[in-house]
């Protein structure tokens, strides 16, 4: 067995071969489950990770790269051991002048950009309403506002589509969320811009509330719907990547205060939501007045449903 401190010589050809390994085939050989979604794949274990050939992007963290970085990130390998893993642990001295095996190698070319297009809409929003208002307890008036402003709709498969706009009102990306509570489904619409988050934006707002997920954003608005909530702006990152926040702030110069409203993962080994909130506070406190709004439950939807169950909320 090689020690982590042992020097492992690698040629540029070997590194290139590893970098361009088809990630889906690599995962399947490890017994992992992946699901095709349009022109890309979703990894079941990490459903915010979008895979296309030898490239990947994890929407929840903003991390991305080629195959070697994928193995380093998710399987905790050093760079040389990740390369060895991807080329099948062959002897380091094997001759790459000969034609390499084609089973697990993708063509080392850049991906052809996929055109972004919103999923076709269903003739009605019945499943959307049932899921958001009954399953998630979000107020009808909040749901109606978001539908009227073309922020959400139901697609032909019965999923909720959360539409993401830039500051000029142009659709740049979209997220899908399943309405079947028994079968979790989330997806990023192919071809969209990962750094454009889901938002309710007021062009004159000086305050921005930032969430991990659209459901929590809408739950928070339900909890505060009797207040003048329209005066502020609200952004869902679709995870914990700072890229959508940086883009939003660049496009909305009026923001002065930011409240980070991330999950409170108290029952997990790592409270990633609150750790991220503290990190974001440090990163953005120089230019903005920052604060943390921590839910007393796991997330803001749990807070909302708990209050309704206890009869504390109307």
TrEMBL record:
Pfam families: DUF3991 (PF13154), Toprim_2 (PF13155). SUPFAM superfamilies: Zinc beta-ribbon (SSF57783). Residues 130-202 form the DUF3991 domain. InterPro entries: DUF3991, TOPRIM_DnaG/twinkle. This is DUF3991 and toprim domain-containing protein. It comes from Hominenteromicrobium mulieris.
């Amino acid at each position: 067995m090689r020690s982590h401190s042992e020097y492992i010589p690698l040629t540029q050809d070997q590194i290139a071969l590893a970098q361009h390994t088809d990630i889906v085939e690599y995962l399947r050989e490890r017994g992992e489950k992946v699901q095709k979604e349009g022109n890309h794949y979703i990894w079941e274990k990490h459903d915010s990770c979008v895979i296309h050939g030898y490239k990947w992007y994890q929407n929840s963290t903003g991390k991305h790269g080629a195959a070697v970085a994928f193995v380093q990130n998710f399987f905790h390998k050093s760079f040389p051991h990740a390369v060895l893993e991807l080329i099948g642990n062959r002897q380091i001295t094997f001759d790459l002048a000969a034609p390499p095996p084609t089973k697990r190698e993708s063509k080392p070319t850049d991906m052809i950009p996929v055109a972004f297009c919103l999923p076709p809409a269903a003739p009605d929003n019945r499943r959307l309403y049932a899921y958001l208002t009954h399953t998630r307890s979000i107020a009808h008036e909040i749901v109606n506002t978001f539908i009227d402003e073309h922020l959400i709709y139901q697609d032909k498969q019965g999923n909720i589509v959360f539409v993401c706009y830039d500051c000029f009102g142009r659709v740049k990306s979209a997220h899908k969320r399943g309405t079947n509570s028994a079968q979790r489904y989330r997806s990023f619409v192919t071809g969209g811009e990962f750094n454009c988050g889901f938002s309710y934006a007021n062009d004159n707002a000086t305050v921005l509330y930032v969430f991990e997920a659209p459901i929590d954003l809408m739950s928070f608005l339900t909890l505060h719907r009797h207040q003048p909530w329209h005066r502020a702006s609200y952004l869902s990152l679709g995870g914990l990547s700072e890229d959508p926040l940086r883009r939003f702030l660049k496009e909305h110069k009026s923001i002065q205060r930011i409240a980070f409203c991330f999950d409170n993962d108290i029952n997990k080994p790592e409270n990633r939501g609150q750790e991220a909130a503290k990190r974001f506070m440090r990163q953005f406190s120089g230019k903005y007045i920052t604060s943390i709004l921590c839910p007393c439950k796991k997330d803001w939807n749990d807070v909302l449903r708990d209050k309704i169950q206890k009869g504390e909320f109307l």
